[in-house]
Design the sequence.
């Protein structure tokens, strides 16, 4: 993929002096949004109180406008996506998080664990059209560093150009423990075997009381951050996530974003933040507050405003669907998840997002949102303007010919 515009790993396609490119605040904006604009344009970060005021602000549209202005100051109308496939290597898990529809006990009828051969067979089906494999899975009771080293080496041997984005922080912790290794040594070994980046899943809400309730036994807040810190120190870029709409308050969300912003200020290793709402069904987490469309767009927009040092904010279409993703691209998101092809975690939780998308389908989401589709590599260091010739814009309502009744 050729470089078609200047970039550095740190800026990831962003304008270096984006704060200076920010348009002035609008007279019609409410005070909370004007204050946020003032902070951002004068190179100051949003405070906890200011973040909470944004969550309480009735004028969602103004929050979205500020977020979109920040996004365009950084990236103009460009919106990024890549060509990837998700492979979830196993659903057999030693934990039982309350929100999880994916995990199975070892003896469940539909429990599965892909052998390396199975995994490669799956990947082979898509290898000609993707440049990234995104793999997260459950905490298999037996798979230690041997399995994953072998897996990553085999993928690289067969498909040297495919980037491996794999393992959440809790998987890293689990594999390290099973292998009697510290996290640094484990990540070092996995990097040598071919691991390219971490997808950042499993952050849920970075508050230990909330975690104790919804995902007891998972890594603590400090452990999540430490695992990502170590990855960044080893020059393994990572994404970071937030699962919202369970039992958390606005304060929990704001503090979550602050944890990520603080770590980023030290390491600069986060590439992209991926916020997604809890998808409900009748059996899991009946006490979840659930997130409305307003809350989803609001959270994405506020993430863009608070996370002023993390370049990319993703509209995670596997979770929020294509229609809301289109809107999210006007509320601060600049990145949309790839072609995906297969995915289990969100789909078992109730997502019905189309899995058989093509790059042209992704480009259409971008064009419909008024953006310019740009294909990127996994580490946001190479970009290619996507040829929109075959991409038709949104389906416009039909023009009706009215019969004039005499
Ligand atoms: S969220 Fe992950 S760790 Fe928790 S039960 Fe599901 S698969 Fe296991």
Sequence:
């Amino acid at each position: 993929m050729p470089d078609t515009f200047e970039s550095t790993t740190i800026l990831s396609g962003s304008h270096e002096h984006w704060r200076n490119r920010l348009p002035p605040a609008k007279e019609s904006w409410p005070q909370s949004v004007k204050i946020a604009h003032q902070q951002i344009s004068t190179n100051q970060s949003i405070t906890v109180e200011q973040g909470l005021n944004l969550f309480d602000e009735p004028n969602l549209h103004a929050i979205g406008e500020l977020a979109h202005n920040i996004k365009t100051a950084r990236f103009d109308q460009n919106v990024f996506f890549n060509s990837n496939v998700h492979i979830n290597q196993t659903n057999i898990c030693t934990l039982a998080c309350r929100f999880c529809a994916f995990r199975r006990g070892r003896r469940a009828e539909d429990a599965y664990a892909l052998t390396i051969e199975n995994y490669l067979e799956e990947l082979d089906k898509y290898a000609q059209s993707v440049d990234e494999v995104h793999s997260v899975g459950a905490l298999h009771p037996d798979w230690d560093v041997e399995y994953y080293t072998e897996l990553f080496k085999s993928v690289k041997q067969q498909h040297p150009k495919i980037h491996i984005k794999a393992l959440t922080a809790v998987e890293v912790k689990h594999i390290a423990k099973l292998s009697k290794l510290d996290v640094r040594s484990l990540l070092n070994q996995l990097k040598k075997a071919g691991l390219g980046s971490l997808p950042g899943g499993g952050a849920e809400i970075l508050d230990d009381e909330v975690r104790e309730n919804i995902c007891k036994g998972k890594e603590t807040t400090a452990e999540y951050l430490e695992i990502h810190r170590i990855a960044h120190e080893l020059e393994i870029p990572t994404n970071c996530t937030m699962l919202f709409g369970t039992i958390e308050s606005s304060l929990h969300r704001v503090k979550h974003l602050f944890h990520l912003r603080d770590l980023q200020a030290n390491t600069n290793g986060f590439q992209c933040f991926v916020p997604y709402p809890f998808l409900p069904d009748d059996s899991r987490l009946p006490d979840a507050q659930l997130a409305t469309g307003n809350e989803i767009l609001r959270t994405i927009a506020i993430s863009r405003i608070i996370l002023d040092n993390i370049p990319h904010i993703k509209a995670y279409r596997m979770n929020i669907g294509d229609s809301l993703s289109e809107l999210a691209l006007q509320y601060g998101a600049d990145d949309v998840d790839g072609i995906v092809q297969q995915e289990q975690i969100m789909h078992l939780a109730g997502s019905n997002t189309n899995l058989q998308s093509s790059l042209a389908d992704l480009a259409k989401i971008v064009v419909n949102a008024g953006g310019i589709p740009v294909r990127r590599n996994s580490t946001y260091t190479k970009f290619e303007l996507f040829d929109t010739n075959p991409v038709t814009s949104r389906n416009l309502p039909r023009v009706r010919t009215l019969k004039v009744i005499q």
